[in-house]
Amino acid sequence: QVQLVESGGGSVQEGGSLRLSCAASEYIYRYKCMGWFRQAPGKEREGVADIERYGIITYTNSVKGRFTISRDNVKNILSLEMNSLKVEDTAMYYCAAVVMSSCTKNWVPDYWGQGTQVTVSS
Question: How far apart are alpha carbons 66 and 68 in whole angstroms?
Answer without folding.
Answer: 7
